[in-house]
Amino acid sequence: MKKGFLIILVLGLALTLSACAPAKDPGAAAGGSPAKADRRQIVVGFSQVGAESDWRLGNTQSMIDAFSAEGGYRLILDDAQNKQERQITAIRNFINQGVDYIVLAPTTERGWDTVLGEARAAGIPVILVDRRIEVEDESLFVCWVGSDFRREGDTAAVWMEEHLPEALRIVHLQGNLGSSAQIGRSEGLAAALARHPGWKVVFEAPGDFVQAKGQELIESLPQDLAYDVIYAENDNMAFGAIDALKNAGILPGKDVAIISFDAGGRALRLVLEGEINLDVECNPMHGPRVRAVIEQLERGETPSKYTYVEETWFDAETLTQAVIDRRGY
Ligand code: AHR
């Protein structure tokens, strides 16, 4: 009697524990290949760059919203803290976990061939979002969705040509070196410099898209350095630069023109207030776009290899409060 009761207790406990176990491998219970056997949930491993900017936070939230459990997804999010080696480790972890798809927002363009080869060997499709990569074999990734960063740089340069004086001393705050966003925006400026002998870069350094670094760089400028414009390759570095200027009694947007990129809500308010002269849009709401790609793949369709998102720009003349109210980031 006692022995029978003990057996029932042990069996009951075992069943309870297995029901409570985390769904680490949704396919395993069905006895098929890991993750893929249970089509009720699509497992997506997302390797995110980090949390360096308002843009990035908006992008992460967009992915979380798009890949919800209610929508039939399980999102495994990894924050690489701006380090490519962490992204490589994250991708290897996703491969070991047998995810259905890997989504990669790459820190920099180079250095992905080996790990993406491993993903392909494991049969896991890789979708790129935001920045691009340079690989020998482009079949290592299914497709890419993101911004035309070079066009963003060109847009800024044309605005500067039309609104600022021909003799221009430029302070250039770069994003993290080797990232598509930095490369494209810097190329746009370099092309304009070649067209304008009167434009000079008087200071240039990477601020890694981070507000505190933008502030530190402007604070580090020699007192006697004269400049007319700060070309900040994202909003957060522009915020830091604005704080540094104000602390030094210099009026941003008036004494020194501010050019920025991203056009998040916080920055657009500064455009209306006249502290940022131009903000070129970089749209981070990629979650639904990446989900649409995965839905295509699930239906056996082939998505376009490269999809550029539509973007615009804002200055005090073109911006309205309604645009700011609609901003999701
Ligand atoms: O790759 C997009 C860039 O990365 C955004 O401009 C910047 O804010 C972010 O950190």
Describe the biggest sheet?
6 strands, parallel
The name of the CATH superfamily of the largest domain reads: Response regulator
Specify the CATH class of the largest domain. Answer: Alpha Beta
Q: Return residue spans where pLDDT drops below 50 for at least 5 consecutive residues.
A: 1-37
The coarse silhouette is elongated
| Quaternary organization | single chain
Work out the number of β strands: 12
- Rounded to an integer in angstroms, the radius of gyration calculated over CA atoms is 24 Å
Protein model, in words:
This protein is α/β, with parallel strands linked by helices. The chain folds into two domains: 39-145 and 284-298, 3-Layer(aba) Sandwich (Rossmann fold), CATH 3.40.50; 149-282 and 315-327, Response regulator (Rossmann fold, 3-Layer(aba) Sandwich). The chain is 41% helix and 19% strand. The protein contains eleven helices and twelve strands. The chain has helices at residues 2-20, 54-66, 84-97, 113-121, 149-163, 180-195, 211-219, 235-247, 265-272, 287-298, 321-326; strands at 42-48, 73-79, 101-104, 126-130, 143-146, 168-174, 199-206, 229-232, 257-262, 278-281, 306-308, 313-315. The strands form two sheets. Strands 2-1-3-4-5-11 form a six-stranded parallel sheet, with helices on both faces. The protein has a six-stranded mixed sheet with strand order 7-6-8-9-10-12, with helices on both faces. β3 (101-104), α4 and β4 (126-130) form a beta-alpha-beta unit. α3 (84-97) packs parallel to α4 (113-121), α5 runs parallel beside α6 (180-195) and α7 (211-219) runs parallel beside α8 (235-247). The chain starts with a helix and ends with a helix. Mean pLDDT is 91; it is low at 1-37. The protein binds alpha-L-arabinofuranose. Alpha-L-arabinofuranose is lined by residues 52-53, 55-56, 130-131, 181, 209, 234, 261-262, 282.
